[in-house]
Design goal:
single chain, mainly alpha
């Protein structure tokens, strides 16, 4: 887990609704798309953050049985 998401993983993420969590994931994916051709390093970093946030969402016990 990156240092950027350590605070979220420590509990703040579990206070967000599913929509808020997925919105944050989508923001990172959108950011990655904007950087794709301009700066591959920033694109890759945004995709890593998106995947980390998706992992946090999948680990959130409130969504067990709702996510596939």
């Amino acid at each position: 887990m990156s240092a950027q998401h350590a605070e979220l993983a420590a509990g703040r993420w579990s206070k967000l609704t599913l929509g808020e969590q997925l919105g944050n994931v989508g923001s990172e994916v959108g950011r990655a798309g904007r950087w794709r051709e301009k700066d591959p390093r920033l694109h890759d970093a945004a995709m890593i953050r998106a995947l980390e946030l998706m992992d946090l969402t999948l680990q959130d016990r409130r969504w067990r049985g709702r996510l596939r």
